[in-house]
Amino acid sequence: MTAKIVLHAVSISLFSALMTLGLYVIFFPPEEWGMLWNVTILDVPFIFFLLIQLLLIGFLWGVIQSGGMKKQVLSIEQQVDDLRQGRTFSKAAQPQTAEFSRLADKVSDLQRMWNEQVKMNQRLASEKVEQQEQKIQEMVSLERQRLARDLHDSVSQQLFAASMLMSAINETEPENRQLQMVEKMIHQSQVEMRALLLHLRPAALKGKTLSEGIDELLVELKQKVPLDISWKTEPMELERGIEDHLFRILQESISNTLRHAEASMLNVLCILRDGAVILRVTDDGKGFELSEDKAGSYGLNNMRERAAEVGGTLKIVSLPDQGTRLEIKVPFEGKEELT
């Protein structure tokens, strides 16, 4: 294609030179035509010397013109390649020829339309994924609620009835240690069942503040589990996202305490100090070693991820037979305590 452009430009230039010479001779004919043949330069008749000179000038002018055309064509070709491969246009000089400039503008418009179409497709794809994830989360939540409701209406009620029955039997036979052990096992099963229900069907804040939600959760929990539960919360204005994540972390922590800690005491602290929200959950259970397996458990990772999402940190201190303390600290600026 480049060779064709050069040949085309040279042909036009030579034709233009010959036409110029022809017109000049027609309108300004020499007085003696023989002079063109008789006069010589370097033993070459003047007419041939003139033709050679015109041909050289035409050839050089054609090469110069073809170079400019080639540069403009390559610029547009680069734009088309960028468009085809989905790249941003390379910075190149705008073609000087009007026709090439219009063609480059049209390619640029096509590129902008293509980019907008790509962005719209990406946005639609992201929205579709988010809608699918939201739908899956809703289905999971509904299934968890259904499972929690079934467990509460069947297994939990049966455990309660078995506990009452064993309690009555043990009152008549207080010396039977095996029956007392059975009652204790049933009692522990009830605690674990309540922890499981709390995990499956976590209560939502539903318009309440974090302190109000904690108060309501712990008051209800205190009535259902044999734990010495104490807590301190301070009214504070937090973003809904921070409140929701801290409340979920608290629920996960309490669920872990009920299921694994075998604790007799649970203390919850939620305060605002030095520009940070501090949520601390402490129990006197059996504790655990912060081994790699434990540190990488799903529950702890979930709490860490929730804390990280609101810019906070999670710290766990636990030793065997010395209880566990979990503390989340979330930076919070621009808000003041409402004490």
Automatic annotation (TrEMBL):
Main location: membrane
Histidine kinase domain mapped to chain residues: 146-334
Enzyme class name: transferase
Gene Ontology MF term list: ATP binding; phosphorelay sensor kinase activity; protein dimerization activity
Record membrane topology: Multi-pass membrane protein
SMART domains hit by this protein: HATPase_c (SM00387)
EC number(s) per entry: 2.7.13.3
Any Pfam family hit: HisKA_3
Annotated protein name in UniProt: Sensor histidine kinase
Organism: Jeotgalibacillus malaysiensis
Lineage summary: Bacteria, Bacillati, Bacillota, Bacilli, Bacillales
